[in-house]
Amino acid sequence: MSVLIVNKENFDSVKNSSKPVLLDFYADWCGPCRMVSPIVEEIAEENPQYLIGKINVDKEPELAQRFRVLSIPTLTVIKNGEIKRQTTGARPKTDILALLQDQ
């Protein structure tokens, strides 16, 4: 499954997904975000049991504000509409998977 680009219009359906959701808050100009992006895409391809989405904070500032994103990249895990985990900064694949596997 590929990464879903999340915006205000489709956010409610993403938030209410029956699958655990990983959201990657990023910006195109952010170096660490560019390091995390291929890892997030790889996780999406290898793990269809999760819904993986990306939110561009420059294009969706309301969503970034709603999740209190102060630094990017920020990775947020949602399950049953609730934030379960949130971490900032570039992370290796094993750490990102660990965020999801506890859900």
Folded structure, characterized:
35% of the residues lie in helices and 26% in strands. The chain is α/β, with parallel strands linked by helices and 103 residues long. It has a 5-stranded mixed β-sheet. The longest helix is centred in the middle third of the chain and has 16 residues, at 31-46.
Would you spell out the secondary-structure blueprint of this structure?
Elements: E1 4-5, H1 11-15, E2 21-26, H2 31-46, E3 51-56, H3 61-66, E4 74-79, E5 82-88, H4 93-101
Query: Into which percentage range does the β-strand content fall?
Result: 25-35%
Helix-strand sequence: EHEHEHEEH
User: For the terminal residues, how far apart are their CA atoms?
Assistant: 19 Å
Which CATH first-tier class would you pick? Alpha Beta
Radius of gyration: 12 Å
Count of helix runs: 4
The largest pleated sheet is described as: 5 strands, mixed
- Unreliable spans are none
Give the number of DSSP strands.
Answer: 5
Order of strands, main sheet, comes to 1-3-2-4-5
The appropriate CATH architecture is: 3-Layer(aba) Sandwich
Taken from the alpha-carbon principal axes, the silhouette is: globular
Structural class based on helices, strands and sheet pairing: alpha/beta
CATH superfamily: Glutaredoxin
Q: What is the CATH topology classification name?
A: Glutaredoxin
Helical fraction equals 25-40%
Mean pLDDT: 94
How many distinct folded domains? 1
